[in-house]
Amino acid sequence: MSEQIEKIQKLIKTATNPKQKAMYQDLLAKLQSELSENAESTEPPQEQIQPSLIPKPKRTSSSSPVSPPKPLSVKPSKIKKVETISPTNRQEKLTPETVNEDLKSEPESSDHQEVKDTDAQTETEQSESGESQRYFQGIGIISGVVTLTEERSTVMLGDKEYRLFYIPNRRRKAYDALKKEIETTGNTTQKLIVYPKILHFPSRDQPHQVAFQLVGFVGHGASSSPLNTELNDFEFKFSGLWQFIPVCRTPCITVMRNFSQDRLAWIKEAEAAKKVKFMKASHVPLLWRDSPVKPFRFNPRLEKDQQGQTYFVQVKAKFLPGRDVFGFVEQLNEPTEEAPGFLKASKKLKAEALRETKERKQQKQVEVKENVTPQSESSDS
């Protein structure tokens, strides 16, 4: 019987199915109970001790928080969620990997635009509804003199002019509505709801550039909403990873692309270059001297498990025109080590996207040469 117990104990250690593990544990408890009963019949002096020992195996198999199926059935779902946001695990298990918000300009394809606009609208609605749920975001209100043209739109904040752009399709409606508001009222000074777009350069000595993506505006007859009542002019709500990035001397809040099944489905079908562009993160420089947690700084000399902790923070900050940075105003929630699910492009995917871009450029150059050659031949004749 002792050999059977050893075999069952080995099966418990190697079992991966919660139900099988529970079954083996129940069987082990029965065998241990039978073994103790046999010991009682052969060793009378231990009769008073054995009954108190018999229930222990049963208690561990039925009431342990580790062995029952319910806790084990919950753990895999948590692991899956973490794997989708973990850069290393996601690179191995998700072929589309991940993709973040573009900092430069509009998306390239109409399908990409539809996905991006829908997601942006969802995030805006979440912000305006006043929900306190945790997700990545960067949205705020600015007020300045607006100049709208088809070639280039701008907004004057203080003494500096900033580029103002919109995403085609859905965000075109916001642009047209703003244009009509200015034509109707004759007032070019408008209060705009925007996403900040920060463009960093490879050299740390080259200053970053700030632009704003138009989401909406607060017209003269607009009713109050949680967003425009919570935020004053030039104030923003940021939720992201508090860290240093190699190309910026100021610590940043990194706003990642929030994870959703719709986005993941689109990523699986998109080209590598579009995936990377879609998943690009926004790194917002923030002046926060007395932050309760230190911004993460990667140390190449340390192993991965020796690196510091990256925190997810939620703050209100004010844009400082001219300085092109944001200043801390208040903390909206306590920093946490756990971040919401997000998408991020792997190094492998970025390399594939770079290769696709180079091939596309080479193909265009070949097409240009082919078009130029026949024209030159016809002119010679």
Q: Residue share in helices? A: 40-55%
- Count of distinct structural domains: 2
Q: Residue-averaged pLDDT, rounded?
A: 76
Q: Quick one: biggest sheet?
A: 10 strands, mixed
Q: Low-confidence parts lasting 5 or more residues at pLDDT below 50?
A: 41-132
The general outline is extended
Rg computed from alpha carbons, rounded to a whole number of angstroms: 30 Å
For the terminal residues, how far apart are their CA atoms? 102 Å
Structural class comes to alpha+beta
Q: Report the sheet-strand fraction.
A: 15-25%
Number of strands: 12
Oligomer: single chain
Continuous helix count = 12
- Please write the string of helix (H) and strand (E) elements: HHHHHHHEEEHEEHEEEHHEEEEH
Task: Outline the structure in words.
Residues 35-51 have a biased composition (Polar residues). Residues 35-133, 354-381 are annotated as: Disordered. Residues 90-119, 354-370 have a biased composition (Basic and acidic residues). The chain is α+β, with helices and mostly antiparallel strands. It folds into two domains: 2-67, no CATH class; 94-363, no CATH class. It is built from twelve helices and twelve strands. Strands 1, 2, 3, 4, 5, 6, 7, 9, 10 and 11 form a ten-stranded mixed beta sheet that branches. A two-stranded antiparallel ribbon has the order 8-12. The protein is extended, with a radius of gyration of 30 Å. The model is unreliable at 41-132 (pLDDT under 50).
TL;DR of this structure?
By secondary structure, the protein is an alpha+beta fold.
